[in-house]
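Journal club prep — side note

Before the paper discussion, L.F. wants everyone to see what a predicted structure for a comparable chain looks like in token form. Sequence:
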Amino acid sequence: MIGIGSGVRVLVATKPVDFRKGADGLAALAKEALGQDPFSGTVIVFRARRADRVKIIAWDGSGLVMLWKALDEGSFKWPPISDGVMKLSTAELAALLDGLDWTRIHPPEDVLKDFNGVLQTDGYSAYKRLAKDRPNAIPLAHCWSHVRRRFYDLAKGGSAPIAQQAIAKIGELYAIEAEIRGQSAEQRRAQRQAKSRPLVAELEVWMMDQLKAVPGRSPMAETLRYALGHWDGLGRFLSDGHLELDTNTVERAMRPIALNRKNALFAGGDEGGEHWAILATLIECCKLAAVEPKAYLTDVLTRLVADSGLIAPVIPI
């Protein structure tokens, strides 16, 4: 019998599977063929073609565990770790836009260890730790889009006049950005100093006043504290014309990966993750250079195969 806790569902695949599949392949099979989420906590049992062995995958709360065991007299026990266990690690794929160049980073701390300059990010804690370790070398500039999105989420739920006013006030900053888009960094800085700085100062006072007027544990208070807690970083764009008002350029680059994550559950290991990051970098560089990514990759791959000698060149007759 399987030594698992009570209340856990156990599903057994009725058809045998190729036992050369690892944990990632079996998990993908569970999703595609069985319609089961391998991360749901359900124990999924697969049998070999000879029906003398089983493989089991289950999510233990920190990783996907795969165990295998030979059948013994028609029953089997949950094997000890020494019998074979494989865990899938969880990694993060991030994007770094340096000027007009995309960089694959693994992890961000390694790439940024020698970096000196302003780092514009969302509120992710890893970047805050990095800046805390080197506050003079890496000041953070934060994203107005993330702040606006929090107010938008409150406003779309119904009557939220404070949230609606906040969205309108932040919208004034975006209107100024639309006017100065395409200008030089120095021109943008000058325009921001003249037009945006008074609005930011007024908005800070307004948010502090609203925070005093709403219940301290309300979602509105939490959103206001989030904005005010990142105020130094939110205001950094005022004195640096190279900075954008938000991180939307990077957000757009990561959106295809986020939308695809349910279809591509696994990168196939660390090397697969590296290859995924390289491919994403090439595609985003194509977009920045106004090059059609599919045409570029088709041309490059065709040339690589032809130069390798694996195929003979086509000679017109």
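L.F.'s comment for the group: Residues 73-87, 312-317 have pLDDT under 50 and may be disordered. Keep this in mind when we get to the figures.
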